[in-house]
């Protein structure tokens, strides 16, 4: 029931989808490839485990030297930065919505900037990976993550690559909800600092690639409004731990 309600809310919010009448900035009209990196999270809850994707995006902006360029854009319900990585034009997006409807912001930004689902890289927390582990997943199901599910629903595609940042499952009697909405402990923060650096290294590596990684046996396009079947999407993961050299990321 809750999932159905969230889907309805997604649809209602998307009814105000960006249109040309709202005005395209000149910066959108650029030659070359465009990609978007999205830090999923809850508006007003930066610093919590569930919003670790926003922390990664902030570190990426700092690495690119554009951390002071965030600007609110009501047409995409988020904050954006335009930047470049080599010859790729990159849009950084921080949705200003609750996690369960982050996809509304992502879909609006994709429409405004003319970015295809396969060129949208989602960064989000992952309960099933321990803190200190990160992994790239190339498309497929949401695996229970509500923010990713919202993106899949709003974009009507599941081909978006994701950077999954481990936050570990709660221990003892702590509920999952309390765990993900809580902040990292002092000891966890020490691990997180290294994770943020490794995450940005991996993102820049992904953004520097000339072509999206796709399964050569899967179709490169889908019917309008159709969903790319998860079973036709190849999943390749790379894991990295602060205790290991990030260049020797293990397959997971």
UniProtKB/TrEMBL annotation:
Coiled coil location: none
Disordered: annotated span: 207-252
PROSITE patterns found in the cross-reference section: PEPT_TRNA_HYDROL_2
Biased composition (Low complexity): 207-223, 240-252
Enzyme class: hydrolase
SUPFAM superfamilies the UniProt entry points to: Peptidyl-tRNA hydrolase-like (SSF53178)
EC code: 3.1.1.29
Pfam families membership: Pept_tRNA_hydro
Alphabetized UniProt keyword annotations: Hydrolase, RNA-binding, tRNA-binding
Keyword Transmembrane among UniProt keywords: no
GO molecular-function terms, A-Z: peptidyl-tRNA hydrolase activity; tRNA binding
InterPro entries assigned to the protein according to its UniProt record, in alphabetical order: Pept_tRNA_hydro (IPR001328), Pept_tRNA_hydro_CS (IPR018171), Pept_tRNA_hydro_sf (IPR036416)
Recorded family membership: Belongs to the PTH family.
Record-linked PANTHER family: PEPTIDYL-TRNA HYDROLASE (PTHR17224)
NCBIfam families given in the database record: pth
Protein name in UniProt: peptidyl-tRNA hydrolase
